[in-house]
Amino acid sequence: MDDGAVLRADEFSARCAGLQAAMADAGLDALLLTTASDIFYVTGFLTRFWESPTRPWFLVVPARGAPVAVIPAIGRDLMARTWITEIRSWNAPDPVDDGVTLLSGTLCDLVPDGGRIGVPMGPETQLRMPLADHARVAAGIGGRSFADATDPVRRVREIKSEGEIGLIRKTCSIAGAAFARVPEFTRAGRPLAEVFRSFQIALLEEGADWVSYLAGGAGPGGYGDVISPADGRPLAAGDVLMLDCGAVRNGYFCDFDRNYAVGRVDAAAQRAHAALHEATDAALGKAAPGLRASDLHRIMHDSLREAGQIPLGGRLGHGLGIALTEWPSLTERDDTPLREGMVLTLEPGVEIAPGRIMVHEENIVLRAEGCELLSPRAPAQLPVIAP
Fold it and tell me: What's the confidence (pLDDT) of residue 311?
């Protein structure tokens, strides 16, 4: 498959088969999926309409056979363009019965009495329906019961197909082209909010479908955090500017950042950037199937320590795909086995001084003998923007 191509129906049916195999191993008779990423993963149903919290959406994956969509009527036409053929719908929103009876009946149709219905219940999952309605569904399915399906869904979703990897690579290339244009619209005296706005425009011009996430920071010799929206403070000579991009193309994210020096920055910032680059290189050289998430954390953490830096606490990377952040988390306590086909971010960070930090992020895919870089590699030296 060419990078950036739309996935074919057989890709989604293969995913369904993978989930059904995992369900069989877990003793589950069906899966109930309610979130945008899970439903897209199985069906290819891609829409920004998830921004509206008004309506619930359901997909039931039975132990055998094709999934059944139980969705508001407004989504019927779009769902019919996917590989899903059985679509049950109701006019939503309905304050009296917002899909409860229809979903309960569907579960009774597809699951034998006494059967177990898997629902993701663990970390990084959510139930996208009113809790009161979920209780009503539970009361309406007779002797059937709900069980945790976090692990079966994770184990299948965390391994990306070559089609998925190609889509992520394409999104990374789009973001790389936009990052290369940052010096065109960034200079001392320009408000950070305008830089953010211009960067989003560049992402769209380079081919992103939308920009779900953009954060960053700027400050003398470093910045205070990595999640802030932009404000109106003008950039100043000596600032370090960071932009962190979660753009989307055909449903797949990139997630990497870049740092820039606005004019001349102090030596501490230059050393921090060099150490982050070296820590990422260390992880790139050792990342491979057979390690654990905690091993990659340790590799980057130790590299930063050896360079005389203070590593940031928390995770130093995570999974990536149809969500901006997926499992696992690269922390010292996450022992998730790393497997071929996982797409991950490497995200070391350091504290330069109290209130001043710097982070660096790249996107990779694990291959049989190591890893492949998906994002265009950042330069070893901190790029300088003329003040």
Answer: 98
Whether 276 contacts 362, CB under 8 Å = no
pLDDT at position 386: 85
Task: Give the start-end residues of each E strand in the chain.
Answer: 30-33, 58-62, 68-72, 86-90, 116-119, 145-148, 210-220, 239-249, 252-253, 256-262, 310-311, 317-319, 326-329, 343-346, 349-353, 356-359, 362-367, 370-373, 384-385
Question: How far apart, in whole angstroms, are the C-alpha atoms of residue 2 and residue 14?
Answer: 19
The Cα–Cα gap between 120 and 380 comes to 41
Could you tell me the pTM of the whole model? 0.96
pLDDT digits (tens, 9 = 90+) for 319-371: 999 999 999 999 999 999 999 999 999 999 999 999 999 999 999 999 999 99
- Residue 43 near residue 84 (C-beta atoms within 8 A): yes
CB within 8 Å of 33: residues ≥ 6 apart: 39, 42, 58, 59, 60, 61, 120, 153
Of 385, 74, 84, 59, the C-alpha closest to 238 is 385
The helix or strand, by DSSP H or E, that contains position 325, with its residue range, turns out to be none
The angle formed by the CA atoms of residues 30, 31 and 36, to the nearest 5 degrees, is 155
Residues 6+ apart with CB under 8 A from 236: 188, 189, 220, 262
pLDDT beneath 70, residues of the chain: 1-5
Residue 212's φ and ψ, nearest 5 degrees, are -75, -30
pLDDT at 6: 74
pLDDT for the residue numbered 387: 78
Q: For 206, phi and psi rounded to 5 degrees?
A: -80, -10
The amino acid at 168: I
- Direct distance between the N- and C-terminal alpha carbons of the chain, in angstroms, rounded to an integer: 43
Angle at 50 between CA 153 and CA 156, to 5 degrees: 15
- pLDDT of amino acid 4: 57
C-alpha span between 248 and 207 (Å, rounded): 9
Residue whose structure tokens are 């990377």: 317
What b/e string do you get for 73-84 counting C-beta neighbours within 10 Å, with b at 16 or more?
ebbeeebeebbb
Give the separation between CA 327 and CA 337, rounded to whole angstroms: 11
Q: Residue 64 is encoded by which pair of tokens?
A: 């055998």
